[in-house]
Amino acid sequence: MKHGALSILPLAAGVAVYGFAFGLLAAQVGFPWWGVALMSSFVHAGSSQIVAVEQFAGTSAVIGAALAGAALNLRYIWIIASLSEVLSGLSLRMKLLAIHVTGDENWALTMAERAKNPEAGVSFLIGSGLVVITVWTTSTSLGAVAGSSLPNLEQFGLGFAFTAAFIAMARGLWRGSSNLVPWVAVFAVTICAVTLGAPKAYAIVAGVICGLAVLYFVKNKKRLAL
Amino acid sequence: MTFPYWMLIVVLAVAAFSIRLLGLFAGDAIKSSRFAWMLDDLPGLIIVSLVASSLAEQSIGTWIAAAAALAVAYFSNHVILTMCVGVVAYGSLVWLGF
Lengths: 226, 98
Prior knowledge:
Largest sheet of chain A: none
Oligomer: heterodimer
Shape of chain A: globular
Radius of gyration of chain B: 19 Å
Number of helices of chain A: 13
Number of domains of chain B: 2
Number of domains of chain A: 2
Distance between the termini of chain B: 36 Å
Distance between the termini of chain A: 49 Å
Number of strands of chain A: 0
Shape of chain B: extended
Strand content of chain A: under 5%
């Protein structure tokens, strides 16, 4: 557990910066620092929290904002499923703890560590995960404390920081030209939906459904061509 | 903190943990199903949609800053660096009156 906790520290520094920025944004939207702390410790999903709060700020539609945030977290079905070997043999209580503290960073680090050393397992995952969730909760709360005493930072470009972060995340998820057509479709449909007056949270859902439909069509076309 | 704020935290926490639970119990079954491709591609689609929703109906300055962030992301593949360059580009363009 200690090995995992120490190994994750460089990545945790990045989480702290990201968390502080989220805390600032959440405070601007009206969340008190303890509300941000509650959300961070119980949700523990950075990008989902950012999206949900951003959508909530724009529309105040709770379900739409939460769905947009949760939809972004769907990759965790895959991530947690990939841990089935790591988690095998654990009690249900420990499994629930392990999946809650699993985030992108400590999951990736655990998988990389296991590739080098198969002995690295659930204790590494939980040790690194506990550090990440602690850093995330603390940094978001500190951001919210600072945010409530600062002017509206949106005008200085803080809101754009998340747009830039999502651009960088998209770059990380780019797998080559096979992504091009569905990604262009998602982009175009979402832009059109917002331009036509749809709330952003629902425009995102519409865009993603369209993207999946295009992807399904492209995959089927390729299969038929073979 | 008013009721909608509480609701957002509760609904998001339940949704986030349900997704994790689904992954736990689905395990290998999902990976080997015919819908595995969907889970694989969904994160990218959602992220692109998020970028599009934040750029829709924005000024030309915001689009130029996004292009700058995209260039940095393409070459560096680094989230924090892209955020920093994006914000500086955005702030500079706002200052210049775009």
